[in-house]
Amino acid sequence: MNRRDLLLALACAIVVSGCAGETNRPQATGKGTVRAINAIETSPGIVYLIEERSIGTVNYKSASAANEWDDLAYTFNFEVTLAGDSTRTRVASQFIDVVVDTDYTIVLTGDLAAPDVTLWEAPRRTFEEGETVFEARFGHAAPGQAAVDVYFAAPGIAPAPGQAIGSIAPGEVLAPADYEAGDWVLTLTAAGDPGTVLFTSRTLTPVVPGSYTFTIFNTDANDVAPVAVQLISATGASSKVNDANFPPRLQLVQASTALATADVYLEDNGDMLTAPVVTDLAFRDVTAELPAFVGSNFLTYTTPMEPAAILFEAEPVIAAGTRNRFVTLGDMDNLGGLLIAVDARSIETVARVSLLHTALNHASVDFFVVARDATLEGAVPRITAIVPGSALRRLELLAGSYDLYLTPTGDSSTVITGPFPLDVAYGDVVDLVVFDDVGDPSTAAIVDVATP
Q1: pLDDT digits 0-9 by tens, 170-195
Q2: pTM for this one?
Q3: C-alpha dist (Å) from residue 155 to 201, 290, 366
């Protein structure tokens, strides 16, 4: 055999050997599904990866989609930018050897820097055409809370001994079961005590067919009830399950110089005024939170002690289980109100600041955030061209000491107001409202509005 033939034979042997090695690799025979749930109440969005490839970001009380993966072995990783850092840190990992037609849910709880990882497994549910049932399971992802008994029944059926579908402690999940289409109510009681009701949902009508996970979370500052429950679908959509016994909340802010001091009535039908919920509400006043109604809320502002002397009326529509702020603003020719959904959840890696501009004397402003005692020379506004009554603006800051300024849009040499000193720590939530200054129209006032 000459040299050329020998080299050719060796090349063929290498190819055959390589092909033989490939046949020893695992071969997928089907698929399973994997999702992740973020149950760390002070966390920012957590980046979710399969091996080193990003799948998406999972926010608190939310889930990723249930992605399909071949029945092979994978490590799912979770990364987050911790307070003060500029790059992400890998904080948790979960190895899963995927089994065909199995659904896996990775639940992150506890400390953001070192989360506890729990894996829930269940057979993957598929539905035949025409099925009129939905699958539901119930999980507990609220560390530090007690175990609960779970009742799931038609409206009007109270918890009774022996009727619970199961009991779950933190980290546990009940086996999935099928339920007929229709109206249902979820009730949670203290374990072993059906008389101690902790949570009663409004009537639920899950879409059929479908697969759902009812999950208990720790509450945050946006919750109006002492127990938080989310309904998570197979697609990853997460919606709040509201407690029927806790109404939404409404805070009033009077930001119109044209609206006289008023008594305020809050009704759910608008037929008649009974007693004011607030008296003598004046310009720049901010009320405590008031119990509100789900749906239309009829607000009537009247001359104090004169219910028939109506100054202003509004009908904000409020969703169940929410915290809200209603701001009156504008002049007499354009008097109106702005309903704002309050987002007071603390995030431990940033300070959260919101700004609402209501000052009609300043048609468009730029908002500057600079280090304490720094000048505006060379500074770039954090928010530009804010007009009165426009949508709430939000930004995030690192912990530190700052000075805030407002200037006319495009003119940083003219200061409307500032410096307004602001000291923030990680986890702080600050809500700022810009009011007109009735004594000096050339200036304005920044007021820190307390959140719940």
Answers
A1: 999 999 999 999 999 999 999 999 99
A2: 0.90
A3: 10, 28, 52
